[in-house]
Amino acid sequence: MYAGAIAMEERIITDMDIQALVDNQLDWEDEKRVRRHLFQSPDAQRRYEELRQQKQVLQLWWAGRKQH
What is the pTM of this model? Predict the structure, then answer.
């Protein structure tokens, strides 16, 4: 869990929630809750960007491997 995890609407937003957002795995209500948390937490925003960029790098790497 990243250092900025806090309880929101009786549910803690964790690193796994942020990763699920990056991977488009959340239902509409959970996505809204996590995005609200990102808006309120600079630490969560940084973590989201780290994970999003990491996913991009992995997708590019995987696409390159498929071509060989």
Answer: 0.76
